[in-house]
Structures are given as C-alpha cells and as structure tokens.
Design a protein that fits this description.
This protein has 3 helices and 2 strands. By secondary structure, it is mainly alpha-helical. It has one domain. It has a two-stranded parallel ribbon. α1 packs parallel to α3. The longest helix is centred in the N-terminal third of the chain and has 21 residues. The protein is globular, with a radius of gyration of 13 Å.
C-alpha cells in the first residue's frame, strides 16, 4: 500500500473523503492487498462519521465497525 498525499489546504469533508480518499485510493489498495479479509474501523473525525461515509463503507467493505459501535475511550479496545 502506498502513502496517500493530500494538499495541506484541502478541506476534507465527507464528500471528498468518500470520492477521493476512499474510492479512488484507499479501498483499491486495501482490496488489492487483503481481498475481502479485513475489518475497516476508523476514529470519530467528522468526515469518517458522515452518513454518506458510513453508508459507503457498509456497502464497500466486508466488515465495517460503525462509529457508534466503537467506544472512543475504551482501554480494552484502544491500546
């Protein structure tokens, strides 16, 4: 998987995150490496919690842990 660079002045909202970061770059790389054997989980950044982001990831990833199902401060889940 290669690094994904984003210009420092780019505003990353839900649309940009879904259309550019996930669909054009990240998910393609993950699928080429792992196929359908991975779990996708992310933190609570607003672009990650956007409704369209959650719907896209539920549709495009084999297993997705939605933001409301992942406790943000659980010592058992976050090292």
């Amino acid at each position: 998987m290669s690094l994904i660079f984003i210009n420092h002045d780019t505003k990353i909202d839900g649309c940009y995150y879904c259309d550019v970061v996930l669909m054009q770059q990240m998910l393609l790389s993950i699928h080429s490496i792992a196929g359908d054997t991975y779990v996708f989980q992310q933190d609570s950044v607003p672009a990650h919690r956007a409704r369209q982001t959650v719907k896209l990831l539920q549709r495009e990833t084999p297993k997705f842990i939605a933001p409301e199902l992942w406790p943000p401060n659980s010592p058992d889940l976050n090292p």
